[in-house]
Predict the 3D structure of the following.
Amino acid sequence: MIIGLTGKNGAGKGEAAEFLVQSGYVYHSLSDSLRDELNARKLEITRDNLTDVGTELRTKHGAGILAERILEKIPVGENAVVDSVRNPFEVEVLRRRKDFFLLAITAQAEIRFERIRNRGRENDPKTYEDFVKMEAREAQSDDPNAQQLNRTETMTDARIINEGNKEELCEKVREVILAFNAENSTS
């Protein structure tokens, strides 16, 4: 089974991915392909560089290129989690595998901003206004090769609202995966 994770910054995708890894899933991130590309170009790994290079790669090689690169790394039959699904074309590529399931992790903007502030990454927005601007840029675009989180979230198989603690999130993820497995074992 391949579980794709989508959601906006600070929603809890990383926590959900960590739980899945502890449950035996192999971790992959579409952002890792971008980090590899930035390293090869000797560019600093910043959110802006990741976004710009992602858009560039999608424009040159097709909007699903990051997902294609990841699928090449996932053997059939392996339980995998794919983090950072941010474009509808990535979903379409991942859906080529019959065992793919897209899960959205969501939370209110204020909660997500507080999480971002608390994690203290160097390139994260420092003010709520900057956070809102970043969100708008990543949420939707007329460019099919750019991040389109709003459209991607409409393609999910399930959605988890993550406004509590880590244990509550992990329990919700476990319940969704169990329900998905039960549904697919009867079909």
Summary: The chain has a mean pLDDT of 91. The CA atoms of residues 85 and 132 lie 20 Å apart.
